[in-house]
Amino acid sequence: PPRRTAAPGGRRLRPMRPAYMYALPAGADEDAFHVHLYANAPYQLIQEHLNYLFRRGWLDAQSKQLTIRALFLNAEVGRPRLEQLSIMLSFSRGGGVFSRITMEPLFLVAWHGLASKGADALSLLGLLALTATRAWRAARRGPGRRTRATYNSVLNWLILLLGYVIIGCYLVQDSLRRAVVDDLREVIDAQRNDVPADMNSPGTRLLDSCLGATAFNGWFRILVAQYHLILVLSFFTAFQAQPHLGVVIRTLEASFLDIIHFLLVLLPTFVAFAISGHFIFGRRIEEFATLPDAIPMCFKLLVEGEYDWPKLSEESFWTSLVWTWSFMVVMVLLMLNMVLGIVIDAYTVVRKSAGKSETVWETLSLVCTRIRYFCQWIPAADIVARVNKQELHFTTEELRALFPEMGEAQFRSLVRDARTRLTSENSEDFGGWHGSTRLMLAVQLHLNRCLAGMRALCPERLADADPPREGLGPWLHYTPDAFGSGSWVRELSERMAVQSHAMLSLQWSLQQLQWQCKAMDALYGPSGRVPSCARDGAAAADDSEAPL
């Protein structure tokens, strides 16, 4: 067969990559040459127009970019809209042609129906309600008081500011839409009247107005998308009012500093692997051709843990093997799992501190109860203001006397929440009964070590310093299954006996330590100098375990 050769002056057409979008040469808008082709023009006239441009060298070696735009009217599916098709051809200095095709819709009707209008109305009412709430709180504080900028206040003011900015953008978008609709009607009327192409000025205005409207819609779409992410942050803040739902936020807060410190190690390691991959694979793999491309490719490998090994190992097998497996072991197996471990560890601590807190269903029941007894429900701020004037501890009868107008439902809920919080704090501080037992065992162990060390200093002189230990039996070691399956009264009494005996043992050890200290002061005086033989005996006693 005949050998195929490229045409003289031919160029290769390739899709435009995002990395080349701003790197390719582009001319200024004032240097552009505009050509308009109208739908009502005869085909022969359009062909003659294109041949004239070709003969006059409209596209030559100095051309940098060619943009083709077309408008399509779609009024059959959903809301009527104009689809703007843009085909951009960029000519590089190396001879390549890079293409990019985009389609931007432009709706000709503002709302799709009553549901769309209702959603916009609810959004506007919510924004106005939030504005009124913030203004009422600011007026209640007074003009002379300065408030501290907190995370919630900054977030609320940011939501308000961006909300009104979006409303203004909606008004601008509606004005641009109306201008496009008016130009479209003029173009349709001109086509019906068969206006010649050289006199069809509404078509040019329609293209310009559509170009401005679609450009504004592109930036406005990004703003609305980011605004929704900020609204999600406000939902996270609102979830903190519910203990079980606030576990996620408190987990992120607890692990934030640890993650930041860990990123100081993770990010340089990750960037080093990206640079190394760019040097190894960038010459032959498009995903590693540039450093901005290598970083997201390495992030994809980090998250997915999958890679195209035949493509990576086409050249320099052992080099590719070392880079791939070192990346998988260091980044995927170690670094990524350490981040998960930090978050899970913080979640375990936060979830344990939450304890048996109020569930979502109990919160909903409380909200319904508060709505039901709205007239006699006392605000939380008034309760805190009155309680702060009382003593630190008071009974439920004193609380009832302090709030005689409080309803029975609110009173029971307040007492129940106080008891639940007290139980949670006690379990968090001591870890329950087993934690308090371990705490006393640790104190007893250290006291016995101190006593053994002091006796080793001068055993013949401090032997008579211990008075007889009467009334105390041997130490009881508690295990979870030590009491069998008896009644709860017996188990409770035995546990209380163990606790009482433990406290007596601690008291006896502290008394012994006090007597030993007095004996040491009497023997060696305030200087506290100990003979060398006594110091050797104390060092030997520190090496051995003092039994309980």
Using brief descriptors, characterize the structure shown.
16 helices, alpha+beta, 4 strands, 548 residues, flat, disordered C terminus, disordered N terminus, four-stranded mixed sheet, single chain
Question: Would you spell out the secondary-structure blueprint of this structure?
Answer:
Elements: E1 12-15, H1 43-55, E2 65-74, E3 81-91, E4 96-107, H2 114-141, H3 151-192, H4 201-239, H5 247-281, H6 291-304, H7 309-312, H8 317-354, H9 360-372, H10 380-387, H11 396-402, H12 408-430, H13 432-457, H14 459-462, H15 488-524, H16 532-543
Parallel strand pairs: 1-4
Antiparallel strand pairs: 2-3, 3-4
Helix pairs in contact: 2-3, 3-4, 5-6, 5-8, 12-13, 13-15, 13-16
Structural account:
Helix 5 (247-281) packs antiparallel against helix 8 (317-354) and helix 13 (432-457) packs parallel to helix 15 (488-524). 63% of the residues lie in helices and 7% in strands. A four-stranded mixed beta sheet has the order 1-4-3-2. It contains 16 helices and four strands. By secondary structure, the chain is of the alpha+beta class.
